[in-house]
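User: For a benchmark we're assembling, each entry needs the component sequences followed by a predicted structure for the full assembly. Here are entry 17's components. Please fill in the structure.
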Amino acid sequence: MVSLRNLLAAALVLGIYSLVMAALWVVLDAVDVAFTEAAVGAGVTTVFMLLAIAATGRHEKIAHRRPWLPILISLAVGGLLVYGTLDLPAFGDPEAPAQQHVGPHYIEQGEAETGVPNIVTAVLASYRGFDTLGEVTVIFTAGIGVLLMLGIIRRRRHAADDDARDRE
Amino acid sequence: MTEHLVLRVVSKLLIPPILLFALYVQMHGDYGPGGGFQAGVIFAAGLILYGLVYGTEAVRSVAPPRLLVVLACLGVLLYAGVGVASMIGGGGFLEYGALSADATHGNHVGIIIIEIGVGVAVAAVMTIIFTVLAEWR
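Assistant: Structure for entry 17:
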């Protein structure tokens, strides 16, 4: 897997990984996340990756040197992250700070305060409405960014082609 | 891709239910799993499937990029507009309780409206990215 140079296969592996993750979210009772993972990770992102590969090339360039520095940085960051998880409370621990802070209020009062039975929607859209506005703005910016960069490059290329034709 | 008969027939059968399911996920997000984000992506997935099988020109004729850009802006503005409306109603920014005399009812209405804004913006942006990437050579 590490030495996969066929980018098409790599994109498909990423899609399958997302689908497995979606199944894992269902097992963990996080159906809203599973929904997003299956639709975005396994579906739309895979198509975007495939389109990007179709626009560039199917195979990764072969590196002539061993990429020691990137390998070292990856291992160091991975090691630090694993070290960080050692301090986390046990999975499902009722005494964990995440279960003690605002969570109980959302679970007990969420439906009465918002009129929405799905607590995930209540938190995302109401209690954390400002964050979600930020997320939508990020997505909007991504779309405008793609449109501006790739759209303008394309227009310039066409303009250049037209100039070349005019000169002939 | 005019010669792939099976793909064309199957996608023609699948696309309407996909779009309908997106609307269901959109309007049912407050009772079941889902919401504006998932609905927007599923709606865009229907259009993307259409584009993969029938070509981006077909998507362009259904959803012209100019219209998509306007829809993406409108989605974000609808969300922020609800925030401003609740400020006019006497609450804080995005404090939907101020939208109605009954705070719980106001909250519910606010959530439904902002989810529609999210859904429209996400569907439009995903379709924009697909059309631009698919036509980039």
